[in-house]
Design brief:
Layout: E1 24-27, H1 35-42, E2 47-51, H2 56-66, E3 70-75, H3 83-95, E4 100-105, H4 107-118, E5 132-137, E6 148-153, E7 156-161, E8 169-172, H5 182-198, H6 207-229, H7 234-254, H8 258-270, H9 274-289, H10 294-304, H11 309-319, H12 333-342, H13 354-366
Parallel strand pairs: 1-8, 2-3, 2-4, 4-5, 5-8
Antiparallel strand pairs: 6-7
Helix pairs in contact: 1-2, 3-4, 5-6, 5-7, 5-9, 6-7, 6-10, 8-9, 9-11, 9-13, 12-13
This protein binds nicotinamide-adenine-dinucleotide (NAD).
EC number: 1.3.1.32
Organism: Kribbella sp. HUAS MG21
Protein name: Maleylacetate reductase
């Protein structure tokens, strides 16, 4: 039986439990120049650099800051951390005797660094190693603020939580995300927005995650509107990274619920693009769940500048040009119905029945405005 969550997850007497994750955030334009000093302060000796294709120049700059500490480089990463790639990266970390990895890029680069930190062997049952992760994010996935890892093999995607994969230092430099194409920007922001919105209704949601979620949505929605007009504006890019940081922390503490679990099922089974899937599904899950968390709903609406959270999210994504239907992402109507059948109930403010999931996915498939 799914465990229902009290509205707003308020516990008797207003009590709550919140775990702050350890980590250091260095934020600001030009902070890429500080990566070498941050690494030095960690006391590590051999540093492997992972860089997404678009971050080659940034990786060159970091490599020269590292001097003798530079142990090797992996250029190019793939979404969802394929095990084959993770194994190659672990081997490289082993042969270069790396005790730290710097990931420069989006969630895929951070994900590969986490896979190395999780285990230096090819067995996922191993405990995390002492290898230190430093993240330099260039998208808004928020993965750099979480201890969540994921890896994909022929049998699907396996995910887990391990403090050993949590980046010890995160360097947010808005200059690096200035060139992120608007389409990728908007989809990545939708991913971060989903972390904020879902963080108010998961079983572990609390007033601190709600505060991060509301402030995160404020920054993300304002930043997204601003980059549409001025894609290279550093203030707007900074707002988006700040929002992503808060969204990631909210996700890290509140965990995932109905929305993320649906997106993972769709992504894992039908190979849908991760960030875009969030934009199609979130407004529909919000339409069902938001009335059950009225206080958080009102605060998120104020942050977004709307009186209807679900419709406001749909309009935000549409105005930014992100597909708001699963049909546009290549899913068939029959697959949407199949996914509704396959979905396993999860704790949620309103009971998760097959009928509820069918309605969410059928509206998300068609892209119906809430
Ligand atoms: P991504 O890292 O694959 O990046 C998306 C695209 O943007 C890629 O083509 C990349 O090369 C390009 N790119 C990145 N930075 C760029 C820049 N500055 N300029 C130009 N192009 C740039 O995608 P993502 O959306 O950042 O991350 C998705 C992955 O992260 C998924 O695998 C998802 O499961 C994972 N994720 C994990 C967590 C977690 O907590 N573990 C949270 C969110 C997402």
């Amino acid at each position: 039986m799914p465990r229902p969550v009290e509205p707003d997850a308020v516990q008797p007497g207003g009590g709550f439990v919140h775990t702050f994750l350890p980590g250091r955030v260095v934020f600001g334009a030009g902070t890429l120049d500080r990566v070498g000093a941050e690494v030095e302060a960690l006391g590590v000796r051999r540093v492997l650099v992972i860089a997404t294709k678009s971050a080659r120049a940034a990786a060159d700059a970091v490599e020269s800051q590292l001097g003798d500490r530079f142990a090797g480089r992996i250029d190019g990463v793939t979404q969802h951390v394929p095990t084959e790639l993770a194994d190659q990266a672990r081997t490289k970390a082993h042969t270069t005797q790396a005790d730290a990895v710097i990931a420069i890029g989006g969630g895929s680069a951070t994900g590969l660094a986490k896979a190395i930190a999780l285990t230096s062997t090819t067995s996922l049952s191993q405990q995390s190693t002492d290898l230190v992760v430093v993240a330099v994010p260039t998208t808004y996935s928020g993965s750099e603020m979480t201890a969540v890892w994921g890896e994909t093999s022929g049998e699907g995607k396996v995910t887990g939580v391990d403090l050993g994969v949590l980046p010890r230092v995160v360097v947010y430099d808005p200059v690096l995300s200035r060139g992120l194409p608007l389409g990728v920007t908007a989809a990545s922001v939708a991913n971060a927005v989903a972390h904020c919105v879902e963080a108010v209704w998961t079983p572990k949601a609390d007033p601190i995650t709600e505060m991060a979620a509301v402030e995160g949505l404020l920054a993300l929605s304002a930043g997204l509107r601003e980059v549409q007009a001025a894609p290279e504006d550093l203030d707007a890019r900074g707002k988006l990274l700040y929002g992503a940081c808060l969204a990631g922390s909210a996700l890290a503490a509140a965990g995932t619920g109905l929305h993320h679990k649906l997106c993972h099922l769709l992504g894992g089974t039908y190979n849908l693009p991760h960030a875009e899937t969030h934009a199609a599904v979130l407004p529909q899950v919000t339409r069902m769940n938001a009335p059950a968390v009225p206080q958080a709903k009102a605060r998120l609406e104020a942050a977004l500048g709307t009186t209807d959270l679900a419709a406001g999210l749909f309009d935000l994504f549409q105005a930014a040009g992100v597909p708001t239907s699963l049909r546009e992402l290549g899913l068939t109507e029959a697959q949407a119905a199949e996914a509704a059948k396959a979905f396993r109930p999860t704790a949620n403010p309103v009971p998760v029945t097959e009928e509820l999931v069918r309605e969410i996915l059928s509206r998300a498939w068609a892209g119906t405005r809430p």
